[in-house]
Amino acid sequence: MIVLGIVDSKPAAAAVLIDGNVVAAVAEERLCRMKMARGMPVQAVAQVLTLAGICAADIDQVAVAQFGILWVPDPLPWDGWFEKEEIAGKRKISKLGADLAPYAGRIPFAPRVYTSLKAWTARKRQTQLPDFLRERYGITAPVTFYDHHYCHATVAYAHCNFDDALVVTLDGGGDGLSGTVWAGINGKLQRIHAIDSFHSLGNLYSYVTALCGFKAEKHEGKITGLAALGRPIYADILRRFIMFDAKKGTIRYRVPMYRESAIKRMRAALPTDFDRADLAASGQLVLEEIGAAFVAYWVEKTGLRKVAVAGGVFANVKFNQRVYQLSGVEKLFVYPGMSDDGLAIGSALAVHFGAGRVRPRRVAQMALGNAYDDADIETALQE
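-> structure tokens emitted (383 positions)
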């Protein structure tokens, strides 16, 4: 079976799997030269078909990651969460989420309303994307959409080489969730826990990123580096906003907040002259504490000591070290494409999980895009 996998959020990417083996995968940003490009991976789709040596008629199935995003037919640059939003509909939905967040604690169904509304506004994409594939590339294979976190889980489990594994996903959010826990047993995945996107550990780190003067959902790696230069003197302040609930084994916000409402609350709690490095160190410490407690809880509860992970939070290498050092963790596998570009492969793998068991295997290699020889490089330098 030949499957084309697509993710059209950010970073957008495409992949081709043949009988469950990844033969090509490319992030659109590598071709259009826009960092973290989101929208339809126009050039990446064409390139993975070429790299795989196939044509449109060879494709048996198209798999697309994520339900609740708006249709964007051409790649757009991503300039951060609180920067100018080119997509008017997305700007309105994001503002609604920020406005609803303070009421989430008093109105339990408020987060569900927001998630449902996002899915409703994105419903046309499920016809627009297949139409685009047919008109642009001549791809007529059936198109199936898959849940964001399920795609993170499939790619982590399929490539961890553990027959049985605890599979954990953590990120800013996708399809209404910011984290999931799965039992991967003998090639099958079963979800055993989920965290609502309004209680996102990844988003808290993004708020720290914004407060430090960087771009949220783009420059979090700078915070990880900056943290080494500071002292975690504001950790207690951050702990007022988020906690690990040991009774329920989940992560939750103590104060309901999202996007602008979160920035406003956190800035008000901090000293007016706070030090950026110290805030970065505080955010890093709290991320490690809560994330590690979350993983440790589910390792103990399930008895699964080999852990496979994916999702943007696991791009934080210092946090990964903390997880690896947990006494209950025997082995840790972090999928190399842990951010959303890895969902292109994850969605394609979801087809195979749906068809039956998938044997977890080692990642053979991650050089899955175009190759450049010395002549190509010399030409580029001369130009």
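The chain has a mean pLDDT of 92.
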